[in-house]
UniProtKB/TrEMBL annotation, chain A:
Native source organism of the sequence: Paractinoplanes aksuensis
Protein name (Swiss-Prot/TrEMBL): Uncharacterized protein
Positions of region (Disordered): 54-73
TrEMBL record, chain B:
CDD domains per the UniProt record, alphabetical: ZnMc_pappalysin_like
Keyword Ribosomal protein attached: no
Assigned keywords, A-Z: Disulfide bond, Hydrolase, Metal-binding, Metalloprotease, Protease, Signal, Zinc
Name of this protein: Zinc metalloprotease
Composition skew (Polar residues), residue ranges: 121-131
Region (Disordered) location: 119-138
GO molecular function, one term: metallopeptidase activity
Peptidase M43 pregnancy-associated plasma-A domain sequence ranges: 155-298
Family: Belongs to the peptidase M43B family.
SUPFAM superfamilies per the UniProt record, alphabetical: Metalloproteases ('zincins'), catalytic domain
InterPro entries, per database record: MetalloPept_cat_dom_sf, Peptidase_M43
Length: 102, 317
C-alpha cells in the first residue's frame, strides 16, 4: 500500500491568486476563495492510491478524471488521471495549503 | 424508450458491486438516450420543423431547500423572494438593465414567457411556503450532490416532474452554483446556489448579488449551454444556438463592448448573455435562439412541470 502524508487526503482547489512564479497553490474546500462561476480546477488524493482530477464541466460542476497515485523519489508523486500521467513535485503541504512545483 | 435492457444480466456469480455497476451503467445509458432525444427535439425547434405551440405564459413551481450550517446561511424568505423576483424579470425580459444590450443585438432579446413561484402545495398535498429548511453539520458542500440527499447532510429533492428544486447552501471551493441538464436522474434534478450568490439582499454579496447565478443555472436546467461552447478557449465549440456569436472562452468580470475573439468582429462576444460567465451586473439577455431551446425543453422533458400562469401552481394535486 503506497503512503503519503494523511494531510493530503482531500480535494484541493487551485488558488490561482496565490500562485508564485514557480509554485501552483492549492487550498481545501473551506478556504475563503473569491467566488467564481467556473469551478476551480481541483485534485484529490485518496487513501489506498485513488486519485482524481477535476476540470470545469458544462453545467458549472466539475468533471472528474479518475486514476491513481504512487509515491516517487523525494518530493515526487506520480499521478494518473484518465489517460494522462504526470509527476507532481510537492514542495510543501499541511492541512491548509498544498504547493506544487510548476 | 428504454434500452437499459441491452445490458446483459450476469449469468453466474453476483456481488453487491455488480449491482452498483449495473445501476450506474443503466443510468448512464438512460442518460445518453434521454440526451439524444432532448437534442433531437431542440434541433427540430431550431430548424422550424417543430414550432412552439403554447400561447400563454407558464409558471414553474419552485421549492427552495435551505441547507444551513450557520444562522447566516439560513437565508430569509425575503432573500428568497428577491431571487424569484429576479427570475421573473429575467425570464420575461423586463429587467431594467436590458437597455444595456448593444443596439446591434436589441432585436435578439427574447422573452421566455416563463414565471416562477414558490410552490404552495407540497408533494403530500399539504399547504407549504415552498421553502424547506434544515441544519446540517457540513461546513460546506461540493458539487458531488450530497446537498440533495437528507442522508448525506442535505435535503431530498421534491418530485422533479412537479417542482424546480433549488438548493441554497454554502458551496466550497468558491463555486457560485451548478446545475443538472434535463434528462438526468430525478433525485438530483435542479440547481444548487451558494447563499452569497442568491437573491439581492441578506447574504448576497457583490459582484454576484443581483441574482444572476440562479438565472444562469436555471438556463442550464432548461437545456442551455455556455455561449463559449465548452471547448475551453477554442473556436470550434458550440452552444447549439444560431443567433449567439461564435466566441472563444467564457468572459469574466465586466467586459467592454466590443470584445473580439474567433474573428467575430465587428460586434464580438455576446458577453452580456446570461450564459456567459460575467458578473451579475454585466449579464442581462437571452436570445430568440436560446429560447427556442427552452421551448423544446418545455415541450419535451419538462412538459409536466409547467402550469398556466395565474392558476394554482402544481404540486400534490
Amino acid at each position: 500500500m503506497p503512503e503519503i502524508s494523511p494531510d493530503l487526503y482531500r480535494r484541493w482547489y487551485r488558488s490561482f491568486e496565490e500562485d508564485t512564479d514557480d509554485q501552483a497553490v492549492y487550498r481545501p474546500a473551506d478556504f475563503p476563495f473569491p467566488p467564481r462561476r467556473a469551478p476551480r480546477p481541483s485534485l484529490e488524493f485518496r487513501p489506498g492510491g485513488g486519485y482524481l482530477e477535476y476540470a470545469a464541466g458544462p453545467a458549472d460542476r466539475a468533471d472528474a478524471s479518475r486514476g491513481s497515485w504512487e509515491p516517487g523519489e523525494g518530493d515526487a508523486v506520480r499521478v494518473r488521471a484518465g489517460a494522462r500521467t504526470r509527476v507532481l513535485h510537492i514542495v510543501a503541504h499541511d492541512e491548509q495549503v498544498l504547493r506544487i512545483r510548476k | 424508450m428504454d434500452n437499459a435492457d441491452i445490458v446483459e444480466t450476469p449469468a453466474r456469480r453476483r456481488c453487491g458491486s455488480e449491482d452498483v455497476h449495473r445501476r450506474l451503467l443503466n443510468e448512464s445509458l438512460n442518460y445518453r438516450l434521454n440526451r439524444a432525444a432532448i437534442e433531437n427535439l431542440a434541433f427540430a425547434f431550431a430548424t422550424g420543423e417543430e414550432q412552439p405551440s403554447r400561447a400563454e405564459v407558464v409558471t414553474i413551481p419552485v421549492v427552495v431547500h435551505v441547507v444551513h450550517n450557520t444562522d447566516e446561511q439560513n437565508v430569509s424568505e425575503e432573500q428568497i423572494d428577491t431571487q424569484i423576483a429576479v427570475l421573473n424579470e429575467d425570464f420575461r425580459a423586463v429587467n431594467a438593465d436590458l437597455k444595456g444590450v448593444p443596439a446591434v443585438w436589441q432585436g435578439l432579446v427574447a422573452d421566455a414567457r416563463l414565471e416562477f413561484r414558490r410552490a404552495s402545495t407540497d408533494p403530500q398535498g399539504n399547504p407549504t411556503t415552498g421553502v424547506t429548511r434544515r441544519h446540517t453539520d457540513a461546513r460546506s458542500f461540493s458539487d458531488n450532490d450530497a446537498v440533495k440527499f437528507t442522508a448525506r447532510g442535505g435535503a431530498d429533492a421534491w418530485p422533479a416532474d412537479r417542482y424546480l428544486n433549488v438548493w441554497v447552501c454554502q458551496l466550497g471551493g468558491g463555486l457560485l452554483g451548478y446545475a443538472q441538464f434535463p434528462g438526468g436522474p430525478p433525485a438530483t434534478d435542479g440547481v444548487v446556489i451558494t447563499h452569497t450568490g442568491f437573491g439581492t439582499t441578506g447574504t448576497a454579496t457583490a459582484p454576484f448579488n443581483l441574482g444572476r447565478t440562479t438565472t444562469h443555472e436555471i438556463g442550464h436546467w432548461l437545456n442551455l449551454f455556455h455561449i463559449g461552447g465548452d471547448d475551453g478557449t477554442g473556436c470550434s465549440g458550440t452552444d447549439f444556438v444560431a443567433d449567439t456569436p461564435n466566441q472563444a472562452g467564457q468572459n469574466f468580470g465586466t467586459p467592454a463592448f466590443p470584445s473580439i475573439t474567433c474573428n467575430n468582429g465587428p460586434d464580438g462576444d455576446m458577453f452580456m448573455n446570461y450564459m456567459d460567465y460575467t458578473d451579475d451586473a454585466a449579464m442581462f439577455m437571452f436570445t430568440h435562439g436560446q429560447i427556442l431551446r427552452v421551448e423544446a425543453c418545455l415541450a419535451g422533458p419538462r412538459r409536466n412541470l409547467v402550469v398556466p400562469a395565474g392558476s394554482e401552481p402544481a404540486g400534490g394535486e
